[in-house]
Design goal:
Blueprint (H helix, E strand, L loop, with lengths): L5 E4 L2 E4 L2 E12 L2 E11 L2 E10 L6 H13 L6 E7 L4 H6 L24 H13 L5 E6 L5 E3 L2 E5 L4 H14 L3 E5 L12 H7 L3 E6 L8 H17 L9 E2 L3 E10 L4 E5 L6 E2 L4 E6 L5 E6 L4 E7 L3 E2 L4 E10 L4 H4 L2 E2 L2
Parallel strand pairs: 5-6, 5-7, 7-11, 9-10, 10-13, 12-21
Antiparallel strand pairs: 1-2, 3-4, 4-6, 8-18, 9-11, 13-20, 14-16, 14-19, 15-18, 16-17, 18-20
Length: 344
C-alpha cells in the first residue's frame, strides 16, 4: 500500500508533502464532542503507510508521550510513505485520569473490538478506529504500557494469523520493537491473543499490527519513553520510511506461555522480586503479613520465568494477583531480522 497523493480521514486531509493535524468526530456527550486527535504526515517520497496509535488506555503515559514526540520530529521532507498517528485514542479517559475503562460507558476499549455503531460509545469508537483509521494503513503499531497499578516489563507482541507473508512481517516488527522479549500469540496455544483487542482485530482485517509495550503504573519515565521511540524508529528504518539501518542488540527471547502467582491469604504484601527478574521454581515471590505484622504466607514461584507484570497494590485479599511471569526460550534464527543482530 504505497503512500497516497492525498490522505483523508474524516475532515483531516494531507496532500503529498504535507503534515496536518485535526480531530475525527466520533460522537458527543451532553457537554461536548467525542473526538480523536489525528496527525497525518504524508511524505514527499513513496513508501508504506504506517498507523501509530497510543492512549487506547489513556493513563499509559510513556506510549502517549513517545507518539507525541514522533509526530513532531517526523517531517514530509524526510519521510518515505505516510504516517497516520493518533496520540491519544481515548480522550475522555485521558481527561479523567482513569485507567482501563471509559468514564462514559465503563467499557475497556481493548476488549471489545471490533465494536459496532449499534453499541455504546466505546464500541462505536472501536469500529471508527478500525474502519476509518487503522485499515487505511498496511502496518500498525498499538503503543501501550502497564496501566494504573501495573508495573510492566517491555515487550513486543504479534498475533500469528497463518498467513505466511503477513506473519513474517509481523514477527519482524515485534522483534525490531522489543529490547528483549517477543510474544507471538497463537490461537489454541498456551499463549493465545487477547480476545477483543485492537491488534487482533486489525490483523484479521489484513493489517500487519503489533502490540508495543513499555512503562506502566501511571508513571512517565524517560527510559520507558525511549524504548518506544527506539522501537518505532527501528521499525520505520526496516520499512525504509526513514534513513538508517535497524538494529537488534543482544539475544532475544520468545515467550511460550505465562502464569500468575496469587495470594491465598490477605494482608500487606512485601514483594521479594523486581520487574524483569529471572526467577526460579521455589524462589520466594512475596511475603504477606496480617495487621499485627505476623507473616501469614510466603508465596513462591511454581516455575522458572521472567517477572513480566507486577501488580503494585500493597494490600491484598485471597485470590489477588501478585506477579505474572513469562516462560520463554531463546529466540530461534529468523532470516528476516538476523542480519540486524548486533552484540551489546
Amino acid at each position: 500500500m504505497p503512500a497516497q497523493r492525498t490522505v483523508r480521514i474524516g475532515e483531516v486531509i494531507a496532500e503529498r508533502g504535507q503534515k496536518t493535524r485535526g480531530f475525527l468526530q466520533v460522537g458527543e456527550t451532553a457537554t461536548g464532542p467525542i473526538q480523536v486527535p489525528l496527525v497525518l504526515i504524508n511524505g514527499e517520497r513513496d513508501g508504506p503507510v504506517l498507523c501509530l496509535t497510543a492512549g487506547v488506555h489513556a493513563t499509559e503515559y510513556p506510549s502517549i508521550d513517545a507518539l507525541m514526540r514522533l509526530t513532531r520530529e517526523l517531517t514530509p521532507e524526510t519521510l518515505c510513505g505516510t504516517v497516520i498517528a493518533v496520540p491519544v485514542v481515548n480522550m475522555h479517559m485521558f481527561a479523567n485520569r482513569l485507567g482501563f475503562v471509559s468514564p462514559i460507558d465503563g467499557l475497556n476499549l481493548n476488549k471489545i473490538a471490533p465494536g459496532g455503531r449499534g453499541g455504546s460509545i466505546s464500541e462505536i469508537l472501536a469500529e471508527v478506529l478500525l474502519d476509518e483509521v487503522i485499515t487505511q494503513a498496511e502496518y500498525h503499531i498499538d503503543m501501550h504500557a502497564g496501566d494504573l497499578g501495573e508495573i510492566l516489563y517491555a515487550f513486543g507482541g504479534y498475533p500469528m494469523t497463518g498467513h505466511m507473508g503477513r506473519d513474517r512481517r509481523g514477527e519482524a516488527l515485534a522483534r525490531l520493537f522489543s529490547p528483549r522479549l517477543v510474544a507471538l500469540y497463537r490461537e489454541g496455544s498456551k499463549l493465545p491473543a487477547a480476545a477483543g483487542s485492537i491488534v487482533l482485530e486489525a490483523t484479521r482485517r489484513g493489517v500487519v499490527s503489533i502490540l508495543a509495550e513499555s512503562g506502566g503504573n501511571g508513571t512517565l519515565e524517560e527510559a520507558d519513553v525511549q524504548v518506544h521511540l527506539a522501537g518505532v524508529r527501528n521499525i520505520m528504518r526496516y520499512l525504509k520510511m526513514i534513513d538508517g539501518s535497524p538494529e537488534i542488540r543482544g539475544q532475544q527471547l520468545i515467550a511460550t506461555e505465562r502464569y500468575v502467582t496469587r495470594a491465598a491469604r490477605a494482608g500487606l504484601v512485601r514483594l521479594k522480586v523486581s520487574i524483569g527478574e529471572e526467577v526460579q521454581r521455589g524462589q520466594e515471590a512475596a511475603e504477606i503479613c496480617n495487621v499485627w505484622g505476623d507473616t501469614v504466607e510466603r508465596l513462591t514461584f511454581a516455575r522458572p520465568g521472567i517477572t513480566g507484570l507486577i501488580w503494585s497494590h500493597k494490600a491484598v485479599s485471597t485470590g489477588d494477583p501478585i506477579v505474572r511471569c513469562w516462560i520463554s526460550e531463546p529466540a530461534p534464527h529468523f532470516a528476516e531480522t538476523d542480519c540486524f543482530m548486533r552484540s551489546k
